[in-house]
Amino acid sequence: MNENLKKLAAEKAVETLESGMIVGLGTGSTAYWAIKRIAERVWEGLDIKGVPSSERSEQFAAEWEIPLIGIEEIDRIDVTIDGADEIDPFLRLIKGGGGALLREKVLAANSDKLLIIADESKRVETLGRFPLPVEIVPFAVRLTLNRLRELGCTPTVRLDGDRPYWTDNGNFIADCQFGSIADPEWLAVQLNQIPGVVENGLFVRMASAAYIGRSDGTVEIIK
Ligand SMILES: O=C[C@H](O)[C@H](O)[C@H](O)COP(=O)(O)O
User: Hey, which pathway is this one from (predicted)?
Assistant: First the structure.
């Protein structure tokens, strides 16, 4: 059911792409549908170059023969299409449920447009029910978690089986349960001031639009 809604949203966002664009490829189960649709449009003649936000997305894109360009070869991305874990009414986001938040944020910060795609279950009034992913260095994890706790959350190091989950950048993820985040802008700044934190999953003032797949079969576009 939700897969259909994710696919609907993804396909609508991919309609906006035009030949000549450099396109950021997001990560996750919703971005998967966007990458698949981009591949179909490439087969139909769309001339774009993709920049993947994770090794996983790079594999899909390469397998489906989307032309890729290295991050070191570009100065700007025209559009990035990516999923989200939570979206509030001001288009502030929690991202990183799939562990790709750092590369996703680099892409988002260097994109003229960030189009978010999601099914309607991702919309919230207030961010924070989804544990906020924070990428941390593997050195001094205990001390970094202590600092995170001081900001009012319960942090847990994400596991992959019985070992810590490693990001594509060789770091760990602390999933931080806040419950409710009253001021995402303030929190994003505080988190990144903690030595040991590489980046956090709050995306504020980044999304240009959100494409929301709804159970009535329509896609709502929030700008
Ligand atoms: O790190 C992963 C990303 O931020 C994803 O875009 C996010 O977790 C949403 O993923 P999904 O579309 O699978 O719900």
Answer: Carbohydrate degradation; pentose phosphate pathway; D-ribose 5-phosphate from D-ribulose 5-phosphate (non-oxidative stage): step 1/1
Q: Could you say which of 11, 104, 135, 199 is catalytic?
A: 104
The residue ranges of every structural domain in the chain are 2-122+204-215, 132-198
Domain 2-122+204-215 is in which class?
alpha beta
**Which sign, positive or negative, has the C-alpha torsion 87, 212, 40, 20?**
negative
Is 0.90 surpassed by the pTM of this model? Answer: yes
With contact defined as beta carbons under 8 Å apart, do 199 and 171 qualify?
A: no
Catalytic site includes residue 3: no
CA distances from 88 to 71, 121, 123, 217, 223 (A): 29, 11, 6, 21, 12
pLDDT digits (tens, 9 = 90+) for 106-147: 999 999 999 999 999 999 999 999 999 999 999 999 999 999
CATH of the domain spanning 132-198, picked from 3.30.70.260, 3.30.390.10, 3.40.50.300, 1.10.8.60? 3.30.70.260
Pocket of ligand 1 (CB under 6 A): 26-31, 82-85, 95-101, 104
Nearest to 13 by CA among 213, 217, 193, 216: 213
pLDDT of 1 higher than 80: no
Q: What sign for the dihedral angle of Cα 189, 194, 200, 202?
A: negative
